[in-house]
From TrEMBL:
Its EC number is 4.2.1.134. Its main location: endoplasmic reticulum. It comes from Microcaecilia unicolor. It is a multi-pass membrane protein. This is Very-long-chain (3R)-3-hydroxyacyl-CoA dehydratase. The lineage of its organism: Eukaryota, Metazoa, Chordata, Craniata, Vertebrata.
Length: 361
């Protein structure tokens, strides 16, 4: 006995440039849709009038259409858009005069020819008005110069932190744990250069060169520079500590990913693997770097208490304010700052890598 072909209910509407088809099937997973010789073929498993089965239909269009249909699958239906080869109104959908029994008008999208003409004219007017409005807005004559500058800035920072990362990695493989204790003396000059240059990341949003939050840039740049120039640079006893290795290493890994991401952004280009790394690798590295910075501050407190360095004397009161009190305050504020930065970066990650809506194929 020949197997009966099940046909779904199909609703259609048209515009001058395209045809809309809506297939009344729910829970469709991967429909097979193709156009050959202006005949559309559809086959899919879904839930229709005859329950959960395989449904299919065939339509031969009245005139030429483009061979690449665009479709979107939802829980309740499959929506198909077919582009006409020539933009004009059709008297009917199919080549055969008699309408197939499974085909019906889609009254939700239905327009007659005059209404479609009005819609087309409205879109054309809107496009013309948009072009006119854009022509009134003055274009930035220095946009290429700004992009070139930002590209070079990010390139220089990338090269600097790459040098730090590569040298620290080589020294780690060659010297092992011994490389921990002279990290500052071998890497400090380049780290100084990169972190002094990083102050520009506060200036860039202030002058409108980039659109980013100033607060988070201030937190990161001044936090790192305080650790580098004050805690490590001014306290010689801290420069032979193993914690310096973990601070510099975590900084360099983060930046050799962050700066290439910004370099590509200057060229309006995105590499999705780099984007994923940019918004993912900070999760462990910020904890390692932030924890290492906190350990450095804790180790610096007894040194400051013993040497009295940076303590403020109040001769009229016969008192002195130890710099260690500032370090305690900084430790608390750095934990709060780390939490705020984590929140900011997590929101960025959700916005860039979060659950996206299903794309139209």
């Amino acid at each position: 006995m020949e197997k009966q072909i099940l046909t779904p209910q199909v609703y259609w509407a048209q515009r001058h440039r395209e045809i809309y088809l809506r297939v009344g099937l729910s829970d469709v997973k991967t429909p097979e849709i193709s156009i050959t010789r202006n005949a559309l073929r559809f086959r899919a498993r879904g839930h229709g009038a005859k329950g959960d089965n395989v449904y299919e239909f065939h339509l031969e269009f009245l005139e030429q259409v483009k061979s690449q249909p665009v479709y979107k699958v939802t829980e309740r239906q499959v929506c198909i858009t077919v582009q006409k080869e020539v933009s004009r109104w059709w008297d009917r959908l199919t080549k055969q005069e008699k309408r197939p029994v499974f085909l019906a008008p889609d009254f939700d999208r239905w327009l007659d020819e005059s209404d479609a003409e009005m819609e087309l004219n409205a879109k054309a007017d809107k496009k013309i008005n948009s072009v006119r409005m854009e022509s009134r807005v003055p274009k930035d004559p220095f946009v290429n110069l700004k992009r070139g500058y930002l590209f070079m800035y990010n390139l220089v920072q990338f090269l600097g932190f790459s040098w730090i990362f590569v040298n620290m990695t080589v020294r780690l493989f060659v010297l092992g744990k011994d490389s921990f204790y002279d990290t500052f003396h071998t890497m400090a000059d380049v780290v100084y250069f990169c972190q002094m240059l990083a102050v520009l990341e506060i200036i860039h949003p202030l002058i409108g060169l980039v659109k980013s939050g100033i607060f988070t840039s201030v937190l990161q740049v001044f936090g790192r520079n305080f650790i580098l120039f004050v805690v490590l640079g001014c306290l010689e006893e801290m420069q032979n500590k193993a914690v310096v290795f973990f601070i510099f290493y975590s900084w360099s890994i983060i930046e050799i990913i962050r700066y290439p991401f910004y370099m590509l952004a200057c060229m309006d280009t995105e590499w999705r693997y780099l984007t994923w790394l940019r918004y993912t690798i900070w999760i462990p590295l910020y904890l390692i770097g932030g924890g290492s910075e906190a350990i450095a501050v804790i180790q610096a407190i007894p040194i400051v208490n013993e040497t009295g360095k940076f303590s403020i004397m109040l001769p009229y009161l016969g008192l002195s304010i130890s710099f260690s009190l500032f370090l305690y305050a900084y430790l608390i504020l750095s934990i709060i700052g780390l939490a705020l930065n984590y929140r900011h970066l997590y929101k960025q990650r959700q916005r860039c890598l979060g659950q996206k809506k299903r794309k139209v194929h």
